[in-house]
Design brief:
The chain has helices at about 5-15, 25-40, 50-60, 75-85, 105-110, 125-145, 155-175, 200-205, 210-230, 260-285, 330-345, 350-360, and strands spanning about 20-25, 45, 65-70, 95-100, 115-120, 185-200, 235-240, 245-250, 300-315, 325, 350, 365-375, 380-385. Strand 9 (about 300-315) and strand 10 (about 325) form a beta hairpin. The longest helix is centred in the C-terminal third of the chain and has 26 residues, at about 260-285. The chain has twelve helices and 13 strands. The strands form two sheets. Strands 6, 7, 8, 9, 10, 11, 12 and 13 form an eight-stranded mixed beta sheet that branches. The protein has a five-stranded parallel beta sheet with strand order 2-1-3-4-5, sandwiched between helices. It folds into two domains: about 5-175, Response regulator (Rossmann fold, 3-Layer(aba) Sandwich), CATH 3.40.50; about 180-385, Alpha-Beta Plaits. By secondary structure, the protein is of the alpha/beta class. It is globular, with a radius of gyration of 24 Å.
Length: about 375
């Protein structure tokens, strides 16, 4: 057998029969990860906390670590940091699982020495791709007999930190700032899931907060929503009226992930964003409230519609930047949908078109309530998500 064939055989075996340690305190998620990895041919040893997982790593022969971020005893950041500080484990590939959408948490994971991260909820194919990528990278280093100096802790962590931070920032920049005109045609047609999101009862907040404080609160919220939308490959984001317009374009659909599913994943992240906003308010704005003027409870409203719009180019005045203006009946319809949701106090509501499309794509949203509201002279059927 030639040396090349030996290398190829070793490489294939490494990718398909790796010993992987999984640390995840949620039993259902732990079971899912174990099943996905075993189906891919890997040997899996799963633990419900970082302390047990680290003890297993010390026994040796582990080829990859997958760890949740939030766990009792020892969280994922601490576990990865401890791995990087151990000279016997420092080159072990590490993947962090996180449901946190905040950029700061991503950076903590990078700084602690993680090689990659997978955001929950995830598709099995996403996890397998991340695992294969790290195993391939580790095996390439092994086959090429790289010197330990090329894998020193400071160089590896620093290089990977810069790479991931740059990748993440470029991804956000691309999604949030570069989704503009593809050609000088005057307009761009988008069709798919149209969402509009806003903070409810902004007038009540302005009774307590200054305009600067209200602007900071709104900026903090919309930045979080924008970052999360970008991670789920939103095609276009723009403020329209009092809401943030988010478009998941059908042209970006793949065989495994369609635009309605990406919209649903953003909606599923909104409770986490709202909880983070309440923590932000408690930390930064609690001293503003008085007995006479208490802070309102933070609430958001997100309206979802299935439709289409055009992004028309609006030339600015001399020296100003040209702008894109979303136009179309569905843009106006979405604005009325958002207004109806705010008046009813519904956090997330679907139009009849959105609900029908979701169901056609195999999504089964849990509907808590439905109403028929007036839309001019027409009736507007709306559905509240549980």
């Amino acid at each position: 057998m030639s040396w090349l064939l030996v290398r190829i055989t070793a490489f294939y075996t490494y990718l398909t029969m790796a010993l992987i340690v999984v640390c995840e305190d949620d039993s259902s998620t732990r079971t899912l990860i174990t099943a996905v990895l075993k189906k891919a041919g890997h040997v899996v040893e799963a633990f419900d906390n970082g302390l047990k997982g680290y003890a297993r790593l010390l026994e040796g022969d582990v080829e990859l670590l997958i760890s949740d971020v939030q766990m009792p005893g020892k969280n994922g950041f601490a576990l990865v940091s401890q791995v990087r500080e151990d000279k016997e484990l420092t080159t072990l590939p590490c993947i962090l699982l996180t449901s946190l959408q905040e950029r700061a948490h991503m950076r903590i994971g990078m700084t602690s020495g993680a090689d990659d991260y997978v955001t929950k909820p995830f598709q099995p194919s996403e996890l397998i791709d991340a695992v294969d990528s790290q195993l391939k990278r580790a095996m390439q280093l092994h086959i090429l007999h790289l010197d330990d100096t090329l894998r020193s802790v400071d160089a590896a962590v620093g290089r990977r930190t810069n790479e991931l931070m740059e990748m993440y920032e470029k991804r956000l920049q691309k999604e949030l700032q570069s989704r503009w005109m593809r050609a000088d045609t005057g307009s761009t047609e988008l069709s798919g899931s149209l969402l509009s999101c806003t903070i409810v009862h902004q007038d009540a907040w302005l009774q307590v907060l200054s305009s600067t404080q209200m602007a900071d609160l709104a900026r903090h919220f919309f930045n979080k929503v924008s970052d999360c939308a970008a991670m789920f490959n939103a095609e276009h984001l723009q403020f329209v009226g009092e809401g943030l317009l988010i478009v998941f374009d059908a042209k970006a659909d793949t065989l495994s992930v369609h635009h309605a599913a990406r919209a649903a994943r953003l909606i599923g992240s909104m409770d986490t964003i709202a909880a983070s906003m309440r923590a932000y308010i408690a930390e930064h704005l609690s001293t503003v409230a008085t007995a006479e003027k208490p802070l309102p409870k933070f609430r958001f409203c997100m309206a979802v519609h299935e439709g289409q719009l055009s992004l028309g180019k609006l030339d600015g005045l001399a020296g100003s930047i040209e702008q894109l203006v979303p136009v179309g009946q569905d843009v106006q319809f979405l604005a009325r949908l958002l207004k109806a949701g705010q008046s009813l106090g519904w956090p997330v509501l679907l139009s009849a078109q959105a609900l029908e499309h979701w169901q056609a794509k195999g999504l089964q949203p849990e509907i808590a309530d439905h109403r028929v509201a007036k839309n001019g002279q027409d009736d507007l059927a709306i559905y509240r998500l549980a």
